Inverse folding.
């Protein structure tokens, strides 16, 4: 398959006729209308059995050569009135396009059809695509695919395979057209699917496989790494991937110990890292001594990450490790407000998961595939993330948040609680639990709020909107 060791933004190309839409009924209707005008009895069934070649090529066997160009023009003129309404979308087409969107990608339709008529089909059938390129055929499709950066091209014809291969893209063929599996494989396609209904699962697996390969290749090039390891799903996968790529002797894990790291997170994190055979470092970090961190403005995470990297960078150098790597993933980079990412980048930290394009969903899928215990671990941001911006961060404030969350977890242990945050709003606490658990039974809610008050809060309430990652950013007007 094409070398995708350095994946860029996802762009997937699709053919139109007999890939996304069943053109045969409309094509046949136009042929009959054209034949009536020209006095020619076109063999409609034969001509629509293997659509794909340029229109003039299909008309040539039945018309005098000098008539073909004008007949083609007339066919295209008749097309809107005779073909659009009668052409259905093929099963799985909408889902295939949506799958690309789900993975943050763009879609490009590259077709031999007259562009204006192709656009009518897309609009009529509500096919959501970003770019339409028409009147290109076979290897000629490669120019559009390369220009748009498509790494995958989906078609039904051997000439679609030619276009994909000429563009250096992965060729995916569906059996909805006239070409057989054997013909498509002989043409060099990489994948044959029965129909587009199989495409979403194929795409998910393809992206996970290629992005994990990119991650491994990236880590191998790095030579050695110190992983900034929190014990969460992202940094755990990164640590495991580094060991796979480099061996445990070229990898170390470092977890910064401070008041902001819950005690409950420390033991499991240490056990997992040690199970991989890597050296585990637990240096003290002193973000509390940074005025910007204590002040707790919207830039708090910048000062926290700056402290962590300022501690880890010399540790890596002392041990001859070439890089400090963080578990930033591809979703983090587009999540809007992430000052901590900026602080790490300014200090030269590398982001292998992000560079490989791995999303949080893919991190969990890969972790499950590798049998990592963190594959379904709930998000566990540092304790300071529970304190509302503008409320000073202190050891006392962090400790009462930790006490409150431990108490609530104990109370809801039988309720399948997954995500929990006790938000410190200064004068009161806001308790966020999984939306599926809301509303809590009145007696349970009363116990929860009483436990939060015992932990040190003067007042508390359960947020009726439930758990929302980064909900305190809403107070900053951030996404």
């Amino acid at each position: 398959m094409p070398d995708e060791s350095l994946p860029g933004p996802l762009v997937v190309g699709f053919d139109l006729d007999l890939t996304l839409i069943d053109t045969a009924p409309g094509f046949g209707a136009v042929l009959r209308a054209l034949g009536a005008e020209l006095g020619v009895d076109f063999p409609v069934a034969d001509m629509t059995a293997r659509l794909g070649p340029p229109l003039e090529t299909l008309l040539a066997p039945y018309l005098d050569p000098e008539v073909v160009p004008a007949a083609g023009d007339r066919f295209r003129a008749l097309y809107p009135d005779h073909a659009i309404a009668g052409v259905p979308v093929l099963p799985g087409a909408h889902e295939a396009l949506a799958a690309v969107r789900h993975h943050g990608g763009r879609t490009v339709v590259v077709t031999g059809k007259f562009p204006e008529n192709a656009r009518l089909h897309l609009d009529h059938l509500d096919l959501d695509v970003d770019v339409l390129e028409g009147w290109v055929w076979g290897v000629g499709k490669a120019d559009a695919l390369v220009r748009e950066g498509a790494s995958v091209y989906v078609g039904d014809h051997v000439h679609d395979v030619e276009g994909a291969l000429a563009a250096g893209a992965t060729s995916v063929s569906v059996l909805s057209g006239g070409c057989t599996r054997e013909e498509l494989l002989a043409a060099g396609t990489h994948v044959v699917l029965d129909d587009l209904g199989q495409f979403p699962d194929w795409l998910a697996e393809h992206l996970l496989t290629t992005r994990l390969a990119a991650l491994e290749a990236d880590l191998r090039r790095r030579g050695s790494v110190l992983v900034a390891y929190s014990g969460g799903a992202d940094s755990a996968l990164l640590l495991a991937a580094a060991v796979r790529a480099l061996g445990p002797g070229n990898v170390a894990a470092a977890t910064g110990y401070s008041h902001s790291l819950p005690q409950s997170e420390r033991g499991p994190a240490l056990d997992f890292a040690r199970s991989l055979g890597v050296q585990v470092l637990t240096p003290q970090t002193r973000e509390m001594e940074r005025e910007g961190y204590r002040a707790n403005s919207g830039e708090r995470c910048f000062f926290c990450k700056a402290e962590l990297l300022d501690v880890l960078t010399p540790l890596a150098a002392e041990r001859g490790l070439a890089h400090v790597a963080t578990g930033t993933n591809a979703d983090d980079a587009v999540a809007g407000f992430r000052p901590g990412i900026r602080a790490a980048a300014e200090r030269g930290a590398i982001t292998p998961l992000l560079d490989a394009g791995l999303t949080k969903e893919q991190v969990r899928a890969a972790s499950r595939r590798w049998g990592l215990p963190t594959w379904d671990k709930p998000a566990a941001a540092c304790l300071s993330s529970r304190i509302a911006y503008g409320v000073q961060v202190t050891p006392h404030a962090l400790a009462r948040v930790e006490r409150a969350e431990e108490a609530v977890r104990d109370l809801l242990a039988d309720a399948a609680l997954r995500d929990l945050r006790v938000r410190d709003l200064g004068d009161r606490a806001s308790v966020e639990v999984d939306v599926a658990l809301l509303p809590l039974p009145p007696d349970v809610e009363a116990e929860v709020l009483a436990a939060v008050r015992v932990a040190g809060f003067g007042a508390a309430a359960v947020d009726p909107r439930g758990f929302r990652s980064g909900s305190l950013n809403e107070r900053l007007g951030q996404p």
In short: The longest strand covers residues 106-110. Residues 159 and 197 are 22 Å apart (CA to CA). The chain has 20 helices and 13 strands. The chain has a mean pLDDT of 93.
